[in-house]
Design brief:
Phosphorylase Kinase, domain 1; ATP binding; alpha+beta; single chain; 48 strands; HET; about 1250 residues; Kinase-like_dom_sf; seven-stranded mixed β-sheet; eleven-stranded mixed β-sheet; Protein kinase domain-containing protein
Length: about 1250
């Protein structure tokens, strides 16, 4: 081919390829891609045949090349664009063939820089390997052209059979249409898109696939949210995959999940793809003018769709192999509308983002519900009243599958309103359901219990519907549906045995086989027991209470009600029963005109609109929405404090630590260890366990059997983990990968960690933690290098956190530095000694937090007789092990000074200065460079650089014959157990040391932890956080309270004091002193007055009253009064007693507070006196719901009558006699006469207003 012909041909092939590109609409900068299969057709054209382009002959060598090119059309297409002549094209393809590079190797890696060569790409290395002296065919210009061109040929095909896929961010995706939807959610944006038809794989023969799809784009806002968002993406994708397996026509079909990974900015974008709902959602159906015209003729279609939704819910709640999914956010917006070919179309449940999957019944789950909050409009009443299980220790705050049944009751009721009153009626109905929040239930306080009822407005509308001729129970379909809503779905009472998956109590009448649920592919309801009749009180349309029988004669004249709300399987059965065999037109008819809305119901809507506007007005002015007559509102905030920890990993920090440890020649062996012995089943899992979407379900007996046989190490590890963490209590056991850790049975803390070595790549977009599979020896160079790296990272990254103390100088008053320190010098220095601080000192110091041990004879301390000797030398060999370990660590961390209380404070003798130095603890610990906490040392001689408890791990590979490249390790990240609940933290003085320290290194028998303002880091490279523990970890304790809402302040100080009250002190009378530094900081940060563990907020009246409402902890038989050294701690302070205390939990905004004069109030009667009005009481009903007293001296002194002061009274809309009153119980001090004006506290509790008698006048409590 001549030069001019070559140029013309190259122009022709470029034009042909460009003309056949399809524009991708996925990204903002639209780019073209070559549809799958089209390139092969281009090369089938004689003008652009492979033989002609490469000049091939019939020789064997050329025919081999031809076969190679045919299997790599994309590679050939790129070469055809980039090389100008036949020789270069042929040579390029020969080089690819020789190096075994075909289409599967695409995309080729970006050009790199070789220091020994000017060549910068893998293409160039091909030629160098040949040692060819000819001119290279790959120059800079066509190398760049190759890497630019390859993208248009690499557009992937979506395989709908795959769970998820990862794509390089540079890859062009095959979406040829894109439209953003207006309903942007919390976690991302929804798009309507179209996939090019040639880029869909896995569609079954005869199956129709609509290329129009919904794509949900989930975008992390920042790095902190990154792993949280990944977890949500994985959770929703997992739920959608599980739903797909059901093949239920009323559940939205999931197509796939995919991620875009890499540049720009090395970020990650997460997507979920599912079928497109052309009608929108159920709310849009109700508002559709077309549907409004037809709705009177759609009764049967509506009921069929509700039956379908019930079947979908039933299947989701009862998945195969014992799995259960609760949707958690059912609402009209999440029920999607597929129009179909006319009529109502099909309704499908979508948006499983709040779904929670379990293989364990609610009753047996150890944790409260962890799913995020769904829409409050359709939430069930047990969110407020709680679902208390029958199991001892069962948590109260749980959501069962019955939560979804309530939501379906609300939606079904709205559907009924739409059918009977029309779209306008539904708008009026929804405007009438108001409250704070505007749910379908209302709450009334009954004593200390919250009692729920169906919203009065909903009841009145149902009463009115029941009067319509189209809504007669047992006569019409709508009447029967209304009965199901009233008697079975919108029922606030929840039977825990039903909620937790125990057999429901539902009498059943056998049906003919042709109509049985089993034959319909639905599980038989396990409703085999009949309960006796009982009565439920509900308000009628006039507002009066009426009795409704729980077992009514419904359609078919058979009992249909048991106790409480029904399960989804029974709901579906009832819907099946309702529609099967009823073909009578009268049964389905609802007439041609909408029912007129009664004036009183319209008035309810008008009143609700006014009230809503009134609330909005007062919200905008900052006033209370609960009591619009109150002119001062208090913002309590919405923070939820809990003991659940978050577990994340930071591979950036982990990589730095690995490199530093390796630099010093420390760390585990780099030799490739052998991989675990696996059974066939587990060998199929090894390339999946590390992936973020991994989840595996085992039958318990099968898991145990294989484990005990010894044939599979992974089965054995799983079984031991299951047995240790109470997973063996269930018939099935599941392991789920969340943030590179396996969780057992869908909840709780991680039980196994998945980790890899630094530099290991398991796959694109992997989310695997870098860590050592086994810990380095305690005190080794590698171990202490990890600690150094933690401190270095904190010094560099946490400048604004306050983790590092400013330099301190001694002054004339000696307040900025410890009076004495231990000089330890540099590593290896053995002549340590006590050192007296001087005004010029600025060197940092490290402080030790430790236990002294029970044997006083073994305490190693400074006293008046040895202090001068210790100033000369503290012989290293004489130091007890705990102290010598502290010296070693201090030296290794680069500090020359160490503070240990027993050595730096003169403990006894005429020169003793403990009382003076104890007051300076705040400065010592908050000013330290860091604090070493000897958590595993039981005394001075134990040491804390001990051999750690071994933990189990397995080395794994990603394929047959591969070296081990990741590990599955027993989780040892238990900061709460190892540190906060450890033996050191049970000492009273240590709480103050922990809180005042800016950062602390905890040496436990399991591993070392580092805590600073950024959270907790572990030797396993995990990063842990907990909002409740964050107060003690605050480097500027308690800075986080400075800007906290009042509710957070109250919850935090109550948790802190409850914790401290349970700690041990050698001297009981130190109880106020050992926490005085913290209390003073709390008062200063919150700008409050107070003392003795009590806070006075002045106009914020609730703060003082809540501080006083503490009681004897349930574990305490009695509280013993401490004989105070100064005798000033008042009886109303918990500091006056030994033993643990607990605060009464009162809902925020729900109490009126009575007058109390505190010692910090104008008009105070002394620095320990409370002044309030006393009232006589006499209990009429001692049931705990109505009255409960906790006597400080124990239950034996409890009385039915006595004297009290009222601190707070419930605000609810009920008579004073019905309201709960919280009180302090008082008695004359020192058994003085009844008319004594000085009283002391003897207990606390609550009772009803009806139990209150006459006032006794103003009293003083000391």
């Amino acid at each position: 081919m001549s030069s001019s012909d070559s140029i013309k041909w190259r122009r022709d092939i470029r034009n042909t390829i460009t003309a056949n590109l399809i524009t991708s609409k996925f990204e903002k900068n639209e780019e073209g891609f070559m549809p799958h299969g089209l390139l092969e057709k281009i090369f089938e054209n004689e003008k652009f045949s492979i033989e002609k382009i490469l000049g091939l002959t019939s020789s064997n060598e050329d025919q081999d090349l031809l076969q190679f090119v045919k299997t790599s059309p994309k590679l050939f297409g790129i070469v055809a664009l980039c090389q100008q002549d036949e020789y270069s094209r042929r040579r390029a393809m020969q080089l690819f063939k020789q190096h075994h590079y075909d289409d599967t190797e695409l995309p080729l890696p970006e050009p790199f820089h070789d220091q020994d060569s000017d060549r910068t790409s893998v293409l160039a290395t091909f030629e160098e390997d040949l040692n060819n002296t000819d001119e290279p065919i790959w120059e800079d210009w066509n190398v760049k052209e190759f890497f630019d061109a390859q993208r248009m040929f690499l557009t992937p095909r979506f395989d709908i059979r795959k769970d998820n896929e990862d794509f390089d961010r540079r890859i062009i995706l095959p979406f040829i249409y894109k439209d953003v939807m207006p309903n942007k959610g919390t976690f991302g944006v929804l798009y309507k898109m179209e996939i090019h038809s040639s880029h869909i794989v896995g569609v079954a023969d005869g199956e129709a696939f609509n290329p129009l799809v919904a794509v949900k784009h989930i975008i992390p806002k920042d790095k902190e949210e990154h792993q949280k968002i990944i977890k949500k993406w994985i959770k929703e994708a997992d739920a959608l995959r599980s739903m797909n397996k059901l093949r239920n026509s009323h559940i939205v079909r999931f197509i796939t999940a995919f991620r875009q990974i890499g540049s720009p900015h090395n970020d990650m974008h997460l997507y979920l793809m599912f079928e497109w709902a052309d009608g929108g959602n159920l709310r849009q159906l109700w508002r559709s003018p077309d549907m409004a015209k037809q709705c009177r003729s759609l009764a049967r279609a509506v009921i069929e769709q509700i039956k379908g939704l019930a079947s979908a819910l039933n299947h989701a709640h009862n998945l195969p192999e014992g799995l259960q999914y609760r949707h958690g956010d059912l609402k009209p917006e999440n029920i999607l509308w597929f129009r179909g070919n006319g009529g109502l179309g099909t309704l499908k449940i979508g948006d499983w983002g709040e779904a929670k999957g379990h293989n364990v019944k609610t009753e047996f789950r150890p944790n409260n519900t962890t799913a995020g909050f769904g829409t409050r409009r359709y939430e069930a009443s047990e969110v407020v009243t709680g679902l208390r299980t029958g199991r001892t220790g069962g948590a109260l705050n749980r959501r069962s599958r019955l939560y979804d049944v309530w939501a379906m009751g609300c939606i079904t009721l709205e559907f009924l309103v739409w059918l009977i009153y029309g779209p306008g009626g539904l708008e009026i109905f929804n405007a009438s359901i108001t409250g704070d929040p505007d749910t379908f239930y209302q709450i009334k306080q009954a004593g200390v219990e919250k009692v729920a009822r169906v919203h009065d407005v909903a009841v009145q509308w149902m009463d009115d519907m029941a009067q319509d001729s189209s809504c007669k129970v047992g006569v019409t379909a709508l009447g029967n549906l209304l009965e199901i809503v009233r008697q079975e779905l919108l029922v606030v009472e929840v039977d825990y045995s039903v909620a937790t998956g125990m057999p429901a109590s539902r009498p059943m009448t056998p049906k003919p086989a042709a109509q049985s649920p089993r034959n319909l592919g639905v599980p038989d309801p396990k409703d085999t027991h009949t309960l006796p009749r009982s009565q439920l009180t509900v308000p009628n349309s006039s507002g009066a209470a009426t009795k409704v029988s729980r077992t009514t004669q419904g359609f078919g004249s058979k009992p249909v009600r048991g106790k409480g709300r029904v399960r989804s399987d029974y709901f579906h059965h009832r819907m099946e029963e309702m529609v099967t065999g009823y073909d009578d037109d009268d049964y389905w008819s609802i007439g041609s005109t909408f029912r007129q809305i009664p004036a009183e119901l319209e008035q309810l809507a008008d009143d609700s609109r006014k009230l809503s506007a009134y609330r909005t007005e007062y919200q905008n002015t900052g006033m209370s929405t609960l009591d619009i007559t109150e002119h001062m509102t208090i913002d309590y905030g919405k923070l939820r404090l809990g003991r659940d920890w978050t577990f994340n990993f930071d591979n950036g920090v982990a990589s730095s630590i690995f490199q530093a440890v390796r630099k010093f020649g420390a760390g585990p062996s780099t030799a490739s260890p052998s991989t675990a012995q696996l059974c066939y089943e587990c060998s199929q899992l090894r390339d999946h366990i590390w992936r973020p979407t991994f989840r595996k379900l085992y039958y318990r007996d099968d898991l145990q059997s294989v484990a005990l046989s010894g044939t599979c190490q992974l089965h054995s590890l799983f079984w031991r983990t299951c047995d240790q963490d109470r997973g063996a209590e269930n018939d099935t056991v599941s392991f789920e990968n969340v943030n590179s850790a396996l969780r057992l049975n869908g909840g709780g803390d991680p039980v196994l960690n998945i980790v890899k070595d630094h530099g290991t790549v398991l796959g694109m977009g992997e989310e695997v933690q870098i860590s050592f599979p086994e810990l380095l020896p305690a005190g080794s160079h590698g171990h202490l290098e990890i600690v150094r790296q933690w401190l270095s990272h904190c010094n560099e990254k946490h400048i604004n956190y306050g983790c590092r103390a400013s330099k301190h100088r001694s002054t004339a008053s000696g307040t900025d530095r410890p009076t004495r320190l231990i000089y330890v010098g540099e590593p290896g220095y053995n002549r340590v000694h006590l050192y007296q601080s001087t005004p010029s000192d600025t060197e940092p110091w490290i402080a030790l937090s430790h236990q002294w041990g029970p044997d006083r004879s073994k305490h190693f301390s400074t006293n008046s007789s040895n202090v001068d000797d210790f100033m000369e030398e503290l012989k290293f060999e004489d130091l007890p092990k705990t102290f010598s370990d502290a010296v070693k660590v201090t030296q290794e961390l680069g500090c020359k000074y160490l503070w240990i209380d027993s050595l730096c404070i003169i403990q006894s003798g005429p020169r003793m200065d403990f009382d003076r130095e104890a007051k300076r603890m705040e400065m010592v610990y908050s000013g330290a460079y860091c604090v070493l906490a000897a958590s595993c040392a039981s005394g001075h001689h134990s040491g804390f650089l001990q051999q750690r408890n071994p933990s189990e791990y397995l080395r794994m590979s990603t394929g047959v014959g591969n070296d081990a490249n990741y590990s599955i390790c027993q989780t040892i990240d238990r900061f709460n157990d190892h540190v906060l609940e450890g033996p050191l933290s049970k000492r009273g003085w240590v709480l103050q040391e922990h809180a005042l320290a800016r950062r602390t290194i905890f040496f436990t028998e399991h591993q070392t932890y580092f805590e600073c303002g950024g959270g907790v880091r572990t030797e396993t490279m995990t990063q842990m956080n907990n909002n409740l523990a964050a107060l003690l970890g605050d480097p500027n304790f308690p800075a986080i309270l400075s800007t906290a809402k009042l509710g957070e302040r109250i919850l935090r100080f109550q948790a802190l004091y409850e914790q401290y009250s349970r700690l041990a002190l050698s001297r009981d009378w130190d109880r106020p002193t050992a926490i005085d530094g913290l209390e003073q900081r709390l008062l200063s940060a919150m700008q409050l007055k107070g003392g003795f563990g009590v806070f006075d907020g002045g106009e914020t009246r609730g703060l003082l009253r809540r501080s006083l409402l503490w009681h004897r902890g349930d574990e305490e038989a009695s509280l013993q009064r401490i004989k105070s050294v100064n005798g000033k701690t008042p009886s109303w302070s918990w500091m006056a007693y030994t033993g643990g205390i607990t605060y009464f939990s009162l809902d925020f905004k729900m109490y009126d507070w009575n007058d109390v004069v505190s010692p910090w109030t104008d008009g105070a009667r002394g620095d320990t006196a409370l002044v309030a009005t006393a009232r006589r009481f006499e209990l009429r009903d001692k049931s705990e719901a109505k009255a409960k007293f906790k006597m400080d001296a124990g239950e034996g002194v409890e009385s039915l009558q006595g004297l009290c002061i009222v601190l707070g009274r419930y605000k609810g809309d009920m008579s004073v006699d019905e309201k709960t009153h919280y009180v302090l119980l008082i008695a004359p001090k020192d058994n003085s006469a009844r008319d004594s004006v000085v009283y002391e506290r003897i207990g606390a509790g609550y009772l009803l207003g009806a139990d209150m008698m006459h006032e006794e006048g103003e009293v003083t409590i000391v």
